[in-house]
Amino acid sequence: MPLGFSLPVFGKAAATPGGIARYAREAERAGAAGLWVGDRLLSPVAPTVPYPGYDTMPEEFHTAQDPFTALAIAAAVTETAVLGSSTINATQYQPANFARLLTSIDVASNGRLLPGLGIGWSPEEYAAVGVPMSERGKRLDDLLDLLETWWSEDTVTHEGVGYRIAESNVALKPVRKPPIHLAGFGERSLRRVAERADGWLPVWAVPEQFPADVITSTLAKLRADAEKAGRDPRALGVALRVNADPGTAPEAIAESVTRIVELVNPDHIFVDLTYLTSSVEEHLDLTGRLLELTAKG
Predict the structure, then answer these.
(1) Could you give the 3-state DSSP secondary structure of residue 243?
(2) Which residues form a coiled coil (predicted)?
(3) Which of 145, 199, 235, 296 has the least C-beta neighbours within 10 A?
(4) Residue 134 burial (CB count, 10 A)
């Protein structure tokens, strides 16, 4: 199965000089089908909303690389791997800059960008960038409108939420329109996926935290709702992230990955190595082991 992995953008491995480039290059050579990033601006000491499953924030988030920089580095040292995000907190960025960043990375990678977007959940991060958290839903809808225009029109003008783009020539276009995948399980988020996205970003846990039919039934509903909205339900893709608890054996991860792929049949799947390794060397060793085990499966 085509299996991808997270780039070392969090934790001790993220602080390794040249680590992202080394991992991206060697992981692709080993057979990684995709290289993925997450997005964490802050790791508050006393968060208003703790990270799910924690009383505070995971130690790994104390060290966090910029996701766009990481994707650009990976684009420069690889040739075939999908370059994805699951997820970038899109509404925490200035929209015009965000559109230019995505376009530039897609061009640099020769059309390999898969932008997975979300709206985040941290009040401290929204306060840090000066964006009202209460506006995140409408800001995401606005951003999707802007990206559609930015990627399809040579002359761009846009009245956005809290900003205005004067009529401007925007000649840099992506190699192909990047397939935007959106995260979320809430009613409004899922409606947005069905009506506007190219794909969905579910998450699977090892050990299992919920039955697989939570994903399969939600996906079936998403595709039915997409058809009701006049879209081709078969065109709605799935990019599945697999999170494993610290200390989980590679064999258990590989077995769970094989099983969930059979049930969901995702277009893309990647294992998040953030909580499993603490160095680029361990990142690479586990990547090779999981590729070997899933190939056997």
Answers:
(1) strand
(2) none
(3) 296
(4) 9
CB of 268 closer than 8 Å to CB of 35: no
Please report where in the chains the tokens 């680029």 appear, as a residue.
280
CATH superfamily of 4-296: Luciferase-like domain (3.20.20.30)
The closest of 208, 216, 254, 195 to 5, measured between CA atoms, is 254
Residue 177 has what DSSP assignment?
A: -
d(CA 100, CA 55): 37
Domain ranges of the chain: 4-296
- Distance of alpha carbon 110 from its chain centroid, rounded? 19
What is the CA angle 40-43-47, rounded to 5?
120
For residue 25, the tally of other CB atoms under 10 A from its CB is 17
Write the CA distances from 238 to 17, 85, 116, 217, 256, integer angstroms: 33, 13, 10, 13, 17
Query: Is the alpha carbon torsion for 21, 22, 23, 27 positive or negative?
Result: positive
How far apart CA 37 and CA 115 sit, in angstroms, is 10
pLDDT tens for 91-115 read 999 999 999 999 999 999 999 999 9
In sequence order, what are the beta bridge partners of 203? 241
Residue 297 has pLDDT above 80, yes or no: no
Question: Model's pTM, two decimal places?
Answer: 0.96
b (16+ CB within 10 A) / e for 276-291 = bbeebeebbebbbebb
> Torsions phi, psi of 116, nearest 5?
-100, 120
Asked whether the predicted pLDDT for residue 1 surpasses 80, the reply is no
